[in-house]
């Protein structure tokens, strides 16, 4: 019987806008996925291809989100852990072990191990990194249509010069993280719509 080992990773921690997104993935023992690595080391095309292959081969995969108001309320570290917690709980199967990218444990009682740079070293975490990145990119593409002018589809909410210029001229939107440096200064007189 196969041990159900879930890899979990998150993306979007350093962004000024949008959610933190986590993915959890359980791979079969006999998976065949070439070029698995940290999603940041892959091209968009390669990530998209691998995401399809991961979903086709995985025993289970799921996502967890933490949105800007929650991030502001509990801080980015806690929001990232909350997103990872949700991703693992959303799996259709309960894992026997959770391998977490980084050095922070998820606040639950499932057996877990933290692995620094796990997204480059552990296939399950690499797969989670790729799924989290591809779904977050899609979310940011859709948010760009709802909140035009910021260039969210291009920079995905990161603090690029283009994004900072848009914040300076437009002020923050409801999907910006108002407590983050770069947004905080632009939003002093802004009241969120939600």
UniProtKB/TrEMBL annotation:
Gene Ontology annotations for the cellular component aspect, listed alphabetically: cytoplasm; ribonuclease H2 complex
Hydrolase is among the record's keywords: yes
Coiled-coil residue windows: none
CDD domains the record matches: RNase_HII_bacteria_HII_like
Localisation: Cytoplasm
Record's keyword terms, sorted: Cytoplasm, Endonuclease, Hydrolase, Manganese, Metal-binding, Nuclease
Domain RNase H type-2 positions: 3-192
Enzyme Commission (EC) number: 3.1.26.4
Cofactor: record remark: Manganese or magnesium. Binds 1 divalent metal ion per monomer in the absence of substrate. May bind a second metal ion after substrate binding.
MF (Gene Ontology): manganese ion binding; RNA binding; RNA-DNA hybrid ribonuclease activity
Reaction equation(s) it catalyzes: Endonucleolytic cleavage to 5'-phosphomonoester
Highest taxon listed in the record's lineage: Bacteria
GO BP annotations listed: DNA replication, removal of RNA primer; mismatch repair
Main location: cytoplasm
Cofactor: Mn(2+); Mg(2+)
Binding positions for a divalent metal cation per the UniProt entry: 9-10, 101
Protein family membership: Belongs to the RNase HII family.
Function: Endonuclease that specifically degrades the RNA of RNA-DNA hybrids.
Official protein name in the record: Ribonuclease HII
Organism lineage: Bacteria, Pseudomonadati, Thermodesulfobacteriota, Desulfovibrionia, Desulfovibrionales
């Amino acid at each position: 019987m196969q041990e159900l080992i879930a890899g979990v990773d998150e993306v979007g921690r350093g962004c000024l806008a949008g959610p933190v997104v986590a993915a959890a993935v359980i791979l079969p023992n006999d998976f065949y996925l070439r070029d698995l690595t940290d999603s940041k080391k892959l091209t968009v095309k390669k990530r998209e291809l691998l995401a399809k292959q991961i979903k086709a081969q995985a025993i289970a995969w799921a996502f967890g989100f933490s949105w800007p108001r929650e991030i502001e309320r509990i801080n980015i570290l806690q929001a990232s852990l909350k997103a990872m917690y949700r991703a693992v709980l959303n799996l259709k199967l309960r894992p026997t072990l959770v391998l977490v990218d980084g050095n922070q444990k998820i606040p639950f009682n499932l057996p877990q191990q933290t692995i620094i740079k796990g997204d480059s070293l552990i296939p399950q975490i690499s797969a989670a990194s790729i799924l989290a990145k591809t779904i977050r990119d899609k979310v940011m593409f859709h948010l760009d249509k709802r909140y035009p002018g910021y260039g969210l589809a291009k920079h995905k909410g990161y603090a690029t010069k283009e994004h900072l210029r848009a914040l300076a001229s437009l002020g923050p939107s409801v999907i910006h993280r108002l407590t983050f440096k770069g947004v905080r200064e632009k939003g002093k007189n802004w009241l969120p719509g939600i």
